[in-house]
Specification:
There is one protein chain. This protein has helices at about 20-40, 45-55, 55-75, 80-85, 85-105, 110-125, 125-140, 145-175, 180, 185-195, 215-235, 245-265, 280-310, 315-340, 345-365, 375-385, 390-400, 410-445, 455-470, 475-515. By secondary structure, it is mostly helical. The N and C termini lie far apart (about 60 Å).
Length: about 525
């Protein structure tokens, strides 16, 4: 039987196009989806892990925290590692590392072992997003860069939405171990395709072992600063933020580490993180936009299933199904946006995306209540994500304007890093806002529950009368009536907290709409180049 040989990439033309670029796109997007699904899929399995591993909630939470910390730390290093090891070797090795770690996560018999391999998995997963973005930007011609970015965006934006749904279904029907073991066949296929098809870009230097110099100071500052920041964001609300000495210590470590990192790397001849790229104001603006897009995307992704599960009693699987409508819309809109980028200036598309997002968050704040059903909740999720494709694709295109192609690895790593930090800050921000606003509204509502409030006494009396009619004694009926009214107060205060938080997101999106016009103009048909002067 004759073996079927996969096509080898032809020598690069002036436009640097691979013959097998769509197959390469399939492979790298497959790997990207793996990484992003694993970021969110674990959260729904935490209760199952607690019972199986005999651990407390705060202990099992490190399964998620360890992965995220390792992932965020490695992101700024992906360009440096890719340049030293070769893009193909580094990317293939990252997929293999991620896949091997997934196997050991799925077979772990103790919490310590699981956390260890989740950290290793996070280190492998860092390259699966940023390096994939750089690969697609290089293997497609300039006029198709909008399309390549849209293909990449489909995986990056649908992955986090798919995670909770897939995780809920797997843990309900099988065991939490399969959320890791299902990565094995996909990881093997992706690593084989990438190693077989991908070639290093022509500008990438081939360094011998003796030529490699490691910036130990910069690497240490990066680990300290980013690691402390990520742990602070993940544990802040749980530890009452700056009321905790642990959080204060992490804040100081993060500030000192990150400021020192910027100063050190700015003056270093061969930095591990090329912070000098931020001298380009357009690149700085694009990173700010991606940071805010990360906040918008993950804030709503956290809040909607949380609202449905805590207040409406949805299961994790049903809440995931509510998110699936938004995921389907992303799949439909991404290719359309890819076409639009070849016809319309990116900054105008970005401005439209922020305007739609602003309107969507405000609309959600007006429609969110305890009476919504599955259909209305699904509609709200669809509305929330409608503007995101108009942000993600053109922001990536704008970030490359005015920068040389040999910086593509650095650009992709920093843009992905800002998106991840935005998602972490967004998650921490909404978690804190929800808790604080719920307390505020509860105090305000309790002011209207005194015996001198006619509406309150009438509600309690009516409820007590119905409970008495159902067979309860008068004293017990009255006690239960007060308890149910109190629960209603808590629920309404929580709903108001969600409403306020969505309004804050709407304001943030509105500010980004105004700032969008400060981004640099591009030539749409040039796929990301600046217009000729």
């Amino acid at each position: 039987m004759t073996a079927i040989a996969l096509p080898r990439p032809l020598a690069r033309s002036d436009a640097q196009i691979y013959r097998a670029r769509y197959l390469i796109a399939f492979a790298v997007v497959l790997a990207s989806v793996l990484e992003l699904v694993d970021t969110s899929i674990v959260n729904v399995a935490i209760p199952h892990m607690m019972g199986n591993l005999g651990a407390q909630l705060d202990e099992v939470a490190w399964v998620s925290t360890g992965y995220i910390v390792a992932n965020v730390i490695i992101l700024p290093l992906t360009s440096w590692l890719s340049d030293r090891l070769g893009r193909r070797n580094y990317y293939t090795g990252s997929i293999v590392l991620f896949t091997v770690a997934s196997f050991f996560c799925g077979t772990a018999r103790s919490l310590e072992t699981l956390v260890l391999w989740r950290v290793v998995q996070g280190l492998g997963g860092g390259a699966l997003i940023s390096t994939a973005q750089a690969i697609l930007f290089d293997v497609f011609p300039k006029e198709e860069r909008g399309t390549s970015t849209a293909i990449f965006g489909m995986g990056v934006m649908v992955g986090p939405t798919l995670g909770p749904t897939l995780g809920g279904w797997i843990t309900d029907n099988y065991t939490w171990r399969w959320i890791f073991l299902i990565n094995l066949p996909v990881g093997i296929a992706a690593s084989f395709l990438v190693f077989r098809l991908l070639e290093d870009p022509p500008w990438e230097k081939k360094l011998t072992r003796s030529q490699i110099r490691i910036d130990y100071v910069g690497m240490s500052l990066l680990v300290i600063g980013v690691g402390a920041l990520q742990i602070m964001l993940d544990k802040g609300q749980e530890q009452d933020w700056f009321g905790s000495q642990f959080i204060v210590l992490l804040a100081v470590m993060a500030f000192v580490g990150l400021v020192s990192l910027v100063i050190w790397e700015w003056r270093h001849d061969d930095p591990i993180v090329d912070v000098r790229l931020y001298r380009n104001l357009n690149f700085l603006g694009a990173n700010a936009m991606m940071f805010m897009a990360g906040i918008m995307m993950f804030s709503s992704l956290v809040m909607m299933p949380q609202f449905l599960q805590l207040l409406l009693g949805y299961s994790s699987e049903t809440a995931g199904l509510v998110l699936s409508g938004g995921g389907f819309l992303l799949l439909v809109l991404m290719p359309i946006v890819g076409v639009l980028t070849a016809k319309i200036q990116a900054r105008y598309i970005i401005a439209t995306g922020w305007l739609i997002t602003c309107a969507a968050m405000y609309y959600t704040s007006r429609r969110l209540n305890l009476e919504i059903d599955f259909a209305h909740a699904s509609l709200l999720r669809v509305v929330q994500v409608a503007g995101l494709p108009l942000l993600f694709v053109p922001i990536i295109l704008v970030s490359y304007l005015g920068l040389p192609p040999e910086k593509s690895n650095n650009i992709a790593g920093l843009v992905s890093f800002m998106r991840n930090i935005g998602s972490s800050i967004g998650t921490s921000m909404v978690t804190t806002l929800l808790a604080r606003y719920a307390q505020f509204h509860q105090v305000r509502l309790v002011e209207h529950t005194g015996v001198d409030e006619p509406a309150f006494t009438s509600a309690v009396s009516g409820l007590a009368a119905r409970l008495t009619a159902s067979g309860l004694e008068t004293s017990e009926a009255l006690r239960q009536a007060y308890g149910r009214v109190y629960q209603a107060v808590i629920a309404q205060a929580t709903v108001l907290a969600y409403v306020d938080t969505f309004r804050i997101l709407a304001i943030g999106a509105g500010l980004m709409f105004l700032l969008s016009f400060g981004l640099r103009k591009n030539e749409p048909s040039g796929g990301g180049t600046a217009p000729a002067h």
